[in-house]
Amino acid sequence: MPRERSAAFAPGRVNLIGEHTDYNEGLALPFAIAEGITVRAKARASSGGEERVEAYASDLGEQDEFSLRDPSREGGWRAFVRGSVAVLGSAGFPLCAACLEFAGDVPQGAGLSSSAALEVALSLTLLDLGAEPGTGTPLQRVERTELARLCSRVERDWVGARTGLLDQLASLYGTGDAALCIDFKSLRVEAVPLRLGAWKLVVLDSGERHSHASSGYNERREECARACELLGVRSLRDADAAAARRLPEPLRRRVEHVIGENRRVLEAVDALRADDLPAIGELLGASHESLRENYEISTPAVEATVSRLLDAGAAGARLVGGGFGGSVLALFAPGIEPPAGAREVRPSPGARMLEE
Ligand code: GLA
Predict the structure, then answer these.
(1) pLDDT, tens digit, for every residue of 88-120?
(2) Cα 163 to ligand 1 centre (Å)
(3) From the alpha carbon of 166, which atom of ligand 1 is closest?
(4) 321 Cα: distance to centroid of ligand 1 (angstroms)
(5) 196-208, pLDDT tens digit by residue?
(6) Pocket residues for ligand 1 (CB within 6 Å)?
(7) Could you give the angle at the alpha carbon of 205 between the alpha carbons of 219 and 112, nearest 5°?
(8) Interstrand relation of 52-57 and 98-104 (parallel, antiparallel or unpaired)
(9) Closest CA to ligand 1's atom 9
(10) How far is the C-alpha of 297 from the C-alpha of 299, rounded, in Å?
């Protein structure tokens, strides 16, 4: 008999540094935040022999219902739910008819990865509900990196955004008081203590919503793939800086961003180990400049937000996530007040099952 009920929480994330490196087999340094999404699931009796899934997005007051074995395509949040069911089902995991309800406090489209939080929490509850009792939780049974891959398949095949594994790995491996240095070539995840003391990391929403499926995100990925072809390398992690300088524009600048950003992640890890927070501030500024000039994913609204933070005295500020809108991350030294509307963020524990 499968279980009757299940619930899981998965957090959003902030990426301290290492933007647009994940799908280039590069390096990043994200951390899970306290805000996230909770999914509660209840096994459902099949009606007339057909197993169906019912889903309710409490924050939106919207509902969906579809066949467990054959979900058809829909847009918006429904794509995440239908996609999670379809991807887990086709990967061979036992699933059962269910009523799902979810709610959260990660703002949508704000660059804090509400999508990964939703995919991870949905997958954990669906896997838990479909499993035989006594077989352990999905987090005990399925490797986290494997779960991250399944979730990113939902985004690629059902939502239409060819994102990397940054958000899902951060949500799944998050841990209090540390950022995660992720090497996307080896998929090794290493916790690097983030001792902020009286310093503050804050995010300020630019107010501009973005969607990876419709922004220039996929186009940037294609540009990186094209640069790899021209350079004759498997990924930009292996790109030679001198050869990259001979690429046509804008590919030269795209590759320069990736090479520079990987280096900045390593410098940030060293700075954190040395408790050198002023150096982190400078690295945030350098990362943003490269995202704006080389990767060209900033917008006037994002620039205005960066300026507000710097004018308030931030030691450094940069856009986080896919770009083309979303939030800006900034670091403030002790005693300097962030502007109104900025929310403090701290490394927090990763995805977990909740007692039902
Ligand atoms: C989004 C994607 C991630 C990553 C970042 C940019 O958040 O979901 O996979 O590519 O953009 O670093």
Answers:
(1) 999 999 999 999 999 999 877 778 999 999 999
(2) 6
(3) 9
(4) 5
(5) 999 999 999 999 8
(6) 19-20, 22-23, 113, 163-164, 166-167, 212, 321-322
(7) 60
(8) parallel
(9) 164
(10) 7
* 307 secondary structure, DSSP code: H
Residue 246 CA neighbour count, 13 Å, CB half: 6
Residues 13, 30 contacting (CB under 8 angstroms) = yes
Q: What is the pLDDT of residues 268-294, one digit of tens each?
A: 999 999 999 999 999 999 999 999 999
Pick from 14, 17, 20, 187 the residue to mutate for probing ligand 1's pocket: most ligand atoms within 8 Å of its CB.
20
Mean pLDDT confidence for 5-17: 97
Give the side-chain half-sphere CA count within 13 A for 190: 12
Q: Which helix or strand (DSSP H or E) is residue 309 part of?
A: helix 300-311
Taking only the tens place, the pLDDT of each residue in 206-223 is 998 876 666 789 999 999
| Nearest Cα residue to atom 1 of ligand 1 | 322
State pTM to two decimals.
0.96
Residue type, 83: G
Q: What tens digit of pLDDT does each residue of 218-273 get?
A: 999 999 999 999 999 999 999 999 999 999 999 999 999 999 999 999 999 999 99
Q: Edge-to-edge strand order for the sheet containing 188-193?
A: 27-28, 178-183, 188-193
Active site residues: 167
Q: What is the pLDDT of residue 215?
A: 73
pLDDT number for residue 198: 97
CA gap 40, 354 in Å, rounded: 9
Q: What number does the ligand 1 atom closest to the CA of 322 have? A: 11
CA–CA distances in Å: residue 38 to residues 85, 100, 122, 140:
17, 10, 8, 19
Q: Are 225 and 25 in contact (CB under 8 A)?
A: no
User: What 8-state DSSP symbol labels residue 215?
Assistant: S
CA of 167 to the centre of ligand 1 (A): 7
